[in-house]
Specification:
The complex is a heterodimer. Chain A has 2 helices and 6 strands. Chain A has a two-stranded antiparallel sheet with strand order 1-4. A two-stranded antiparallel ribbon of chain A has the order 2-3. Helices cover 41% and strands 18% of the residues of chain A. Chain B is built from 4 helices and 2 strands; from the N terminus they run αβααβα. Chain B is elongated and about 65 Å long. Chain B has a two-stranded antiparallel ribbon with strand order 1-2. The chains are: A alpha+beta, B mainly alpha. At the A-B interface, helix 1 and helix 2 of A face helix 4 of B.
């Protein structure tokens, strides 16, 4: 959809993406001490990879006989959720059933501080998108006031 | 400009369509946490545009345009639900703007008509 509501769709895709980032961060924090997974071994931190969606929104220009590309972006889309390949933490805990022969347990490569800062950026990015939506809504309302 | 001309018929269809869209979005949002729920969307714009193009002067034909409901493809989450709360909110904002616009046009037209009637007295 282009035209008046194009910006709303773009901001909506941003909100969806940031919500998924938030879900992933929450999952990382929830599994910060998980030593067993279906794939075996401790939990591996996950990260959302975003990419810009190809155009299709915006408008086709061409006023005055020259070609003008006015097509904006098509918002954002999720390219995938990838695993963080950084090494696991080793914690000395001989009493743990998952400890190795030397008494060390492999713990997830989740850093609570990193997750917290990521959570702040995800929240702020979400807020930015809602602000953009409200701005476009206000614009449309002002346009409507001309009609009244 | 007549009382029941093609423009007022088109505005009525648009109002009905916006209302149906609003109902569908409310239903989708209400079922945002229902496992396996597939959201629906309502469209009437293309049918209305077609009717206005094929029968530009037939108010009755234009007024028979009905909004069509379709189920959205794609599953978003592992619980099988396809409801994206953010997208639905955006759709709700769009529908509200559309409804307000059509309503403003309709009341403007009726206001003009009533002024005509008053001045004819």
């Amino acid at each position: 959809m282009s035209g008046l509501f194009g910006a709303l769709d773009i901001s909506g895709s941003g909100m969806t993406a940031e919500r998924l980032r938030m879900d992933t961060i929450a999952n990382n924090l929830a599994n910060a001490n998980t030593t067993r997974t279906a794939a075996g071994g401790p939990y591996r931190r996950e990260e959302v990879v975003l990419r810009s969606a190809s155009g299709g929104m915006g408008m086709a220009g061409g006023a005055g006989g020259f070609s003008l590309d006015l097509s904006g972006g098509g918002g954002v889309e999720v390219a995938g959720i990838v695993q963080d390949r950084t090494p696991f933490k080793q914690v000395y805990d001989p009493g743990n059933p998952d400890a190795n022969a030397r008494g060390y347990v492999l713990m997830p490569n989740v850093n609570a501080v990193t997750e917290m800062t990521d959570m702040i950026t995800a929240t702020r990015a979400y807020e930015a998108n809602t602000t953009a939506i409200n701005a476009v809504k206000g614009e449309a309302q002002h346009c409507l006031d001309v009609l009244r | 400009m007549g009382l029941f001309d093609v423009t007022s018929a088109a505005l009525e269809v648009a109002l009905r369509g916006a209302e149906a869209q609003q109902t569908a979005i409310s239903n989708n949002l209400a079922n945002a946490n229902t496992p396996g729920f597939r959201p629906t969307s309502v469209s009437f714009q293309s049918a209305l545009a077609d009717a206005l193009q094929t029968t530009p002067n037939d108010a009755t034909a234009v007024s028979t345009v009905q909004p069509t409901e379709s189920t959205d493809p794609g599953i978003m989450r592992t619980d099988g639900s396809g409801v994206d709360v953010d997208r639905q909110s955006v759709e709700l904002a769009k529908t509200q703007i559309l409804f307000d616009t059509v309503m403003a046009m309709d009341s403007k037209r009726l206001h003009t008509l009533s002024q005509l009637i008053t001045s004819a007295r």
